[in-house]
């Protein structure tokens, strides 16, 4: 059975008593012990209206929306194939929904995550939207934006108590309507209290109010990192019917009134304005890829550090992260032995130079790419060979701009020759900087890259190790200040799991951590913890359903976990004055996901700000610097690629 729950407020008529009366879409205050609301969040959140279709609205809305390309990688607030979009952002059919509703296909709760690094500037309960968290995100470059999360859980018993206070809240605040939704939420709280006291239908209780442990996981003033869990989706608040997350995103926009011309130093007002993070502005469920976008989606198609991406999604991720000059650094390409599908794992990191990538080419094609790139001033940074169930291995190569020093690359070095090659380059003071084991015709081979460093350090390499042998070497080399830099996990033709590793010198200000058999399904949780400790992914190798990972960090770097002062709140009248609002609390949009319902003789005009607005950007679907299969080329005689080392000029 498929459950489709969404905000009841989504069906309310669009409020506009006339075109001159634009009200904020959302304001936030906290329920007090006397059942009133106070401690107002200082800022209003406004509906996205085009000045062309309203007397007041976003100035040059097309240009503003066209600039909605994210200033930093942003991730969806939910994860998992079971989570779908039950209702999208829209202003259609005289109703408004300035956000995205996410639900679990079975109506269950699910974790909610911060979409980017930021600071929690609001965390509190209002009877309309329930428990709300607002996070402000300030990238190093680009615009500041805020993400808003409604209907979160904050402990079963706590939320039941708040639901039972709905009638008292309405009685204390008579301008809030005692309508169907308020009565239903009061009844929900009363039944939950009864079930809890009698230990009755605990499954129903859990579905609607969760468990005592499912609470808000953040507080005002707390710093969060992208992908950090902040809470659980819930059924909290008058305007929620069924467990879901109502998510919104806002950034400052210039607002102006029609016919008013700014002169001299005058500037339009800037207001926090809500917009669709997917760029679709459509009521459709699930937001399919086929829907036209008015601007690129803010959300990354994959995590910055990732595992088990198919090639198509990886290509989309390359295009997305290149917007911020984030490029693949760590990379691993593997093939599922059963399905023969290729998967990619690795990391996108900030880079001053634009690398080039060729994916899954034949040996001849790979060698031609090496020679062509070398002529154009490039050199290989990483060469991966993916063993195939039948036939020759396929090569994936990451190129970087050549540096003024010597290097050497091997793409099919027999295992029995590796020791000799390693010894020769070691004697010449070259570092082994990258390698990859692979089988072809039941024979073990290696790709390898050596570089001549400015400062040479001892390092070591070994292969065909058991896990126990690898652990013993790790202990031995730790005494010599060598730690794993690369760990590869592979399977022999006989089915044995074997290991190959490169140990390198660890700088005094660095720390290295590694895990040998991390289940891929636990990778993201493990990775979030490592990020909290300021580690970055150095290497990943995937085999079957587990991976070997190496993390490194600079010990002098720290991530602030909290700020000393929580964001300020305002009493009502200061809030109204700060936001230049007239009237009183009864005029404010307390319903949560809509503007207040107003009785009108004429139906409210439908506002569709994204129709025929000039300046929208089309999504760029042109692949960037990635090639799954190289074009057909004339046959080339087999060659052993070995770029002769040349001594770099002495500084």
Radius of gyration: 29 Å
Q: How far apart, in Å, are the first and last alpha carbons? A: 71 Å
CATH class of the domain at 8-297 and 574-587: Mainly Beta
Strand content range: 25-35%
Q: What's the mean pLDDT score?
A: 80
**Segments where pLDDT lies below 50 for 5+ residues?**
1-20, 557-564, 589-651
Sum up the overall morphology in one term. elongated
CATH superfamily of the domain at 8-297 and 574-587: Glucose Permease (Domain IIA)
- CATH 2nd-level architecture of the domain at 8-297 and 574-587: Distorted Sandwich
CATH fold-level name of the domain at 8-297 and 574-587: Glucose Permease (Domain IIA)
Class by alpha and beta content: alpha+beta
For the largest beta-sheet, the strand count, sense and barrel status come to: 10 strands, mixed
Number of strands: 29
Provide the helix percentage: 10-25%
> How many individual helices?
11
């Amino acid at each position: 059975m498929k459950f489709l729950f969404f905000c009841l407020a989504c069906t309310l008529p669009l409020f506009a008593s006339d075109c001159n009366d634009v009200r904020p879409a959302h304001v936030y205050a906290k329920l007090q012990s006397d059942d009133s609301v106070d401690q107002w969040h200082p800022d209003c959140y406004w509906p996205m209206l085009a000045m062309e279709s309203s007397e007041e609205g976003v100035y040059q809305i097309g240009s503003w929306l066209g600039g909605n390309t994210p200033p930093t990688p942003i991730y969806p607030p939910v994860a998992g194939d079971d989570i779908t979009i039950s209702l999208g952002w829209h202003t259609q059919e005289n109703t408004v929904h300035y956000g995205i509703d996410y639900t679990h296909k079975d109506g269950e709760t699910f974790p909610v995550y911060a979409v980017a690094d930021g600071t929690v500037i609001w965390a509190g309960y209002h009877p309309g939207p329930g428990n709300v968290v607002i996070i402000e995100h300030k990238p190093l470059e680009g615009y500041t934006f805020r993400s808003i999360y409604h209907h979160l859980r904050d402990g079963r018993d706590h939320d039941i108590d708040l639901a039972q206070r709905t009638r008292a809240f309405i009685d204390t605040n008579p301008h809030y309507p005692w309508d169907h939704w308020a009565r239903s939420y009061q009844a929900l709280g009363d039944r939950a209290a009864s079930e809890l006291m009698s230990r009755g239908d605990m499954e129903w209780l859990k579905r609607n109010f969760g468990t005592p442990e499912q609470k808000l996981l953040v507080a005002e003033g707390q710093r969060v990192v992208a992908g950090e869990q902040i809470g659980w989706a819930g059924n909290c608040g008058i305007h929620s019917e069924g467990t879901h997350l109502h998510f919104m995103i806002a950034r400052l926009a210039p607002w102006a009134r029609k016919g008013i011309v700014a002169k001299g130093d005058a500037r339009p007002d800037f207001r926090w304005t809500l917009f669709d993070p997917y760029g679709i502005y459509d009521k459709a469920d699930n937001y399919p890829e086929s829907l036209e976008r008015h601007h690129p989606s803010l959300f990354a198609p994959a995590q910055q550090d990732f595992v088990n991406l198919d090639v198509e999604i990886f290509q989309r991720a390359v295009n997305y992260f290149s917007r911020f000059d984030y490029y693949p650094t760590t990379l691993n390409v593997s093939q599922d032995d059963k399905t023969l599908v290729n998967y990619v794992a690795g990391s996108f990191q900030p880079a001053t130079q634009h690398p080039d990538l060729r994916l899954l080419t034949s040996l001849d094609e790979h060698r031609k790419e090496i020679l062509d790139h070398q002529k154009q001033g490039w050199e290989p940074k990483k060469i991966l060979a993916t063993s195939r169930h039948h036939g020759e291995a396929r090569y994936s190569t990451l190129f970087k701009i050549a540096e003024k020093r010597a290097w050497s690359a091997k793409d099919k070095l027999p295992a029995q020759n590796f020791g000799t090659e390693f010894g020769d380059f070691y004697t010449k003071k070259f570092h082994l900087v990258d390698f990859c084991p692979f089988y072809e015709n039941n024979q073990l081979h290696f790709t390898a890259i050596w570089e001549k460093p400015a400062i040479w350090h001892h390092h070591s390499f070994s292969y065909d190790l058991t896990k126990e042998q690898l652990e013993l070497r790790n202990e031995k080399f730790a005494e010599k200040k060598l730690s794993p830099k690369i760990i590869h996990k592979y399977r022999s033709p006989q089915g044995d799991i074997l290991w190959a590793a490169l140990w390198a010198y660890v700088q005094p200000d660095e720390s290295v951590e590694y895990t040998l058999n991390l289940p891929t399904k636990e990778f993201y949780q493990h990775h979030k913890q490592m990020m909290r400790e300021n580690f970055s992914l150095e290497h990943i190798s995937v085999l079957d359903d587990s991976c070997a990972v190496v993390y490194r960090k600079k010990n002098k770097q720290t991530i602030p976990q909290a700020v000393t002062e929580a964001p300020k709140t305002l009493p009502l009248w200061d809030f109204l004055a700060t936001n230049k609002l007239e009237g009183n609390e009864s005029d404010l949009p307390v319903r949560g996901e809509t503007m207040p319902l107003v009785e009108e003789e004429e139906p409210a005009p439908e506002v569709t700000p994204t129709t025929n607005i000039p300046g929208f950007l089309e999504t760029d679907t042109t692949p960037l610097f990635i090639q799954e299969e190289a074009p057909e080329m004339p046959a080339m005689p087999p060659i052993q690629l070995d770029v002769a080392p040349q001594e770099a000029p002495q500084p």
